[in-house]
UniProtKB/TrEMBL annotation:
The chain crosses the membrane at residues 12-31, 43-66, 78-95, 101-124, 136-155, 161-181, 211-232, 252-272, 284-302, 308-330, 342-363, 369-388. This is MFS transporter. It is found in: Cell membrane. PANTHER family: BYPASS OF STOP CODON PROTEIN 6 (PTHR23514). InterPro entries: Chorismate_II_sf, CM_dom_sf, CM_II_prokaryot, MFS, MFS_dom, MFS_trans_sf, MFS_Transporter. SMART domains: CM_2. It comes from Sporolactobacillus shoreicorticis. Residues 395-485 form the Chorismate mutase domain. It is a multi-pass membrane protein. Pfam families: CM_2 (PF01817), MFS_1 (PF07690). Residues 12-391 form the Major facilitator superfamily (MFS) profile domain. Keywords: Membrane, Transmembrane, Transmembrane helix, Transport. The keyword Membrane applies.
Length: 491
């Protein structure tokens, strides 16, 4: 397949993000409709909750297999399969009267979720030359879906509308989008045969530090997910039971956390895109900060402090750190991205199973124990990244120059910003000179500039290079001024 054009990339990205908007809806649609579904199926709320756990089972069962399929048969097929399965779930749940069928459908939703993940994350990495910034936006698309659905359901209930409409909308969105995706061009994928050569299974070839990193990143698949699930599950009760907040104040903690997560996504996206910071350094910073904010949430009794800390915890723990972890993991196995994604999210699925179980047990001793156990997991994440950062730096030092390159990217970013500023000032001088009828070229000023630079240079062996660079800047600056004057004259 040929390289993708910019408009193809944008179109495909939008379709993929739209899937995750619907997936955000899918994540909440059962819990938000527990009451109507329980009366539809003639079961208790507890049974509906049991049906919901089927989603987790489906994800766990399917991730690894679908990840391998994604590497072998291509991203597009696996994504389309996920979208169609998801639509069947949305429609099927509405029309079934039997909770056992609903349970099977929930498993199908889990399978659909893993298909979307196994196909989409690698596609974004392949489309953006392994820059993980675009995958971070997946999280934003999901958060928007999660934000919109409860609002819609609340509004629909007030207006007395049928609960099933949101299911129909979700399925319709997906089916129309599936049509668009089926005609979309996908980025070039790493050759499938190489999966065998470089596969994760060829442990003999892996160095000790690589095995260490695989372990760390897999465990992070668990801890990054667990930290978020645990917080969202217990924070509201903690606010009411332990902090004696009003119901409204306690719910607000979760809303602020969600808004924080969207802010975090935008922040991390900008940081990664501008290459201002190395991804693994960002992980150490984010995980240490999230631990700090969590400590405030767990031990402060001052309501405003807990409220603000919840917002910042959303930024640092739910702003896409999980996605960066996955991007780093994928970059270690460029030919098996689908499988890596699958392994990573399988660990995440285990978190969605185990967290409700062990926190449920802890809550018997008090809600504070349940929420504060999140500190243990957040500390674990932090330690994982201290070690992970070290291992990544060591392997980079020996084998490549990624560290230097990312620093050069950082410097180039600022050189460009400064040059843009310089050109702007030179243009302004150019316009003033035109109005005064003075020539652009000012040899005295240029001589001054050059001799000043000469005085500033410390590494004398590079003096000639600096001369040449500043001479080029001046030449281009004058060209810029000429252009702006000509434009002014034409007008
Ligand atoms: O200082 C000026 O007079 C400018 O027009 C700016 C500038 C420059 O880019 O620094 C550009 C052209 C002149 O020959 C000297 C300096």
């Amino acid at each position: 397949m040929n390289a993708m054009t910019k408009s193809n990339k944008i179109r495909l990205s939008l379709s993929l993000y739209l899937n995750y908007f619907v997936h955000g809806i899918g994540l909440l649609i059962l819990t938000q409709n527990m009451r109507p579904l329980s009366s539809e199926w003639g079961t208790s709320i507890a049974t509906v909750s049991y049906v919901i756990s089927g989603v987790g089972i489906g994800r766990l069962l399917a991730y690894y297999l679908l990840g391998s399929f994604s590497d072998r048969f291509g991203r597009k097929k696996i994504i389309l399969f996920g979208m169609i399965s998801y639509s069947i779930f949305f429609i099927g749940i509405l029309f079934t009267k039997d909770f056992k069928v609903a349970y099977l459908l929930a498993i199908l939703a889990g399978v659909a979720n893993s298909a979307l993940d196994s196909g989409t994350y690698p596609t974004f990495l392949e489309m953006n030359r392994n820059n993980g910034a675009a995958s971070i936006l997946i999280k934003a698309a999901m958060s928007i879906g999660e934000f919109v659905l409860p609002l819609y359901i609340g509004l629909n209930e007030n207006l007395g509308g049928w609960y099933g409409l949101s299911f129909i909308f979700a399925a319709a969105f997906l089916l129309i989008n599936a049509l668009l995706i089926s005609y979309s061009q996908f980025p070039l994928q790493a050759r499938t045969e190489k999966v065998v050569e470089h596969g994760l299974s060829s442990r003999g070839k892996m160095s000790k530090s690589k095995i260490g990193l695989v372990t760390i990143l897999s465990l992070y698949g668990y801890t990054s997910m667990a930290v978020m699930i645990l917080f969202t599950q217990w924070i509201t009760l903690y606010g009411v039971d332990v902090l004696q907040m009003s119901n409204m104040q306690a719910h607000f903690l979760l809303s602020l956390y969600s808004i924080g997560s969207i802010v975090g996504v935008l922040l991390i996206f900008t940081l990664l895109k501008s290459a201002l910071i190395r991804d693994s350094t960002l992980m150490v910073v984010m995980n240490s900060l999230s631990l700090g904010f969590l400590l405030i949430v767990c031990f402060s009794t001052y309501h405003p402090a807990v409220t603000i800390a919840s917002f910042f915890f959303g930024i640092t723990a739910a702003g896409g750190v999980m996605q960066i972890g996955l991007t780093i993991f994928c970059s270690m196995f460029p030919h098996a991205k689908g499988r890596v994604t699958a392994i990573f999210f399988s660990f995440g699925s285990i978190a969605s199973f185990t967290v409700p179980i062990f926190t449920g047990m802890l809550s018997n001793s008090g809600t504070a124990y349940a929420l504060r156990s999140d500190l243990v997991i957040a500390s674990f994440s932090f330690v994982l990244w201290i070690i992970g950062h070290r291992l990544l730096s060591l392997s980079n030092d020996r084998t490549n120059y990624e560290t230097e390159r990312s620093q050069i990217n950082f410097i180039d970013y600022w050189i460009l910003k400064l040059l843009q500023w310089r050109f702007k000032l030179a243009k302004s001088i150019g316009i003033k000179k035109m109005n005064q009828g003075r020539p652009i070229f000012d040899p005295f000023r240029e001589k001054k500039i050059v001799s000043r630079i000469d005085r500033l240079v410390k590494d004398h062996e590079n003096r000639d290079h600096y001369h040449e660079i500043f001479q080029t800047i001046l030449t281009n600056s004058k060209q810029c001024q000429t252009n702006i004057q000509e434009k002014g004259r034409v007008k």
